[in-house]
Amino acid sequence: MKLCRFDGTRFGVVTDAGIHDVTGAVLDLPACGYPYPSHDLLIANLPRLRDAMLRLAEASPAMPHGSVAFDAPVANPGKLVGAPVNYVKHLEEVRDQAALHHNNEAH
User: What is the average per-residue pLDDT within 28-48?
Assistant: First the structure.
């Protein structure tokens, strides 16, 4: 089962036919307060929600893949990983400062 988030607040199952809106299945997720859990609530509850998602997907019309605006697959990631060499200006800066690149060759 392929899952997606789309159009800001919707949740779907992706099939060859298109996107099936199954938002109703995730409305039953537990509310979370502060501090936020270190895990994804949807993934943690997927075994419980899976059957409802499949039923809703079968009952809902398929929207064409190109008709929705896909969102990031994880709504609240626990961390973001980045490498400074992804940024050309920072790369140029780092090349001149051995203390920053720790003698690792940056391309």
Answer: 83
